[in-house]
Amino acid sequence: MLKVAVSGAGGFLGWHVRVLLRALGWPQPIVLSRGDLADPDMVARKVAGVDRVLHLAGVNRGEPVDVAAGNVHLAAQLADGLKRCATPPARVVYANSVQAGNGTPYGDSKATAAQVLTGAGIDLDDVLLPNLYGEHGRPHYNSAVATFCQVLAEGGRPEVHADRELSLVHVTDAAARLIGALAGGSWDPTMAPLRIGVKELAGRLVDIAATYRTGEIPPLLSRHDVRLFNTYRSHCFPAHYPLALPRRADARGELVETVKAHGGPGQTFCSTTMPGITRGEHFHLAKVERFVVLRGSAEISLRRVDGAEVLRLPVSGDEPVLVDMPTMWVHKLVNTGPTELVTMFWTNEIFDPDRPDTWPEPVEAVRTAPVAVGA
């Protein structure tokens, strides 16, 4: 369990690093904001004695001259603070890019930034990251995956102007590599990539969206299938939920089709919950979990990890709906009615007690103040 400081903690990669640290139960990271980086004495105070400084802050988009100067400037600010530190950190981990040194303003500035950090005199782990994708990426900024998912979630169709092969790594795998986590059930620090063409990627996401439009589960046959699906779902939440389920009734009773899965493992289970009792209070990093209340009334509450806003969805067995829990959102189910609650649950994997991918955290209590995006 290491003590970690992070620059760029409010960005896409930074948020996923904080989520993984939360799941592992490591201490909350020390955040180095852009304002902190501008004050070398502040940097020195904040990083004194930490095990690892993750330098994630960078400039990815903008005018070429601003991108080129921005990445080097941020590295220089951090290096200045590190040199002033009375008790220097054991290691600096730099979120570099596979594009480093490729002759572009971005690639060359990332390579120069690595040299600047080396000059601080502290052990540097220079991690060359490929294209990252995952939940809550910014469209037209973080990755083509985020852009395609947002377009599809809004009912459009992605456009591919030029086809080329991508090497895609899920951002949780990158986070695990950066913090030095051992291999786990939901992450792979070796960052095994998905190699796929842009056109094929768009087609796969189009198929996912088309299948999921009515709540059917697309084929989830590999780790990247699951993670692409979870990434798409993050762009659908909360606007697309709850999703009404068709109900058929005759003299014998009623029938509700709760899950139609097109391939891959899965597990279905059912629970009863007494009035006023709560189930859940946890989040998942990769597991797909569906709730369907079949009898009684309940409230499903959700909060994005490290966020403050709690979303509340009332549900009832009188009008069955499905709600799929978004990954990296804490959630719970409370019986709000006077009678026993009957709920069906479905997950895309058979429960493994050694790797449950279930991380306890209360929905209502936020342990730390949210980090502002871009911090």
Task: Please give a quick description of this structure.
By secondary structure, this protein is of the alpha/beta class. Helix content is 29%, strand content 27%.
Q: Could you walk me through the main structural features you see in this protein, from its secondary elements to its overall organization?
A:
It is built from nine helices and 20 strands. With 375 residues, it is α/β, with parallel strands linked by helices. The protein has a five-stranded parallel sheet with strand order 2-1-3-4-5, sandwiched between helices. Helix 3 packs across helix 4 and helix 6 packs across helix 9. The longest helix has 20 residues. The two termini are 24 Å apart. 44% of the residues are buried.
Features:
375 residues; alpha/beta; Rossmann fold; Jelly Rolls; five-stranded parallel sheet; five-stranded antiparallel sheet; 9 helices; 29% helix
The strands making up the biggest β-sheet line up spatially as: 2-1-3-4-5
Report the portion of residues in β strands: 25-35%
Arithmetic mean of pLDDT: 95
**Strand-pairing-aware structural class:** alpha/beta
The biggest sheet, with number of strands, parallel, antiparallel or mixed sense and barrel status, is: 5 strands, parallel
- CATH superfamily grouping of the largest domain: NAD(P)-binding Rossmann-like Domain
**Cα-to-Cα separation, first versus last residue:** 24 Å
CATH architecture assignment of the largest domain: 3-Layer(aba) Sandwich
Uncertain regions spanning at least 5 consecutive residues = none
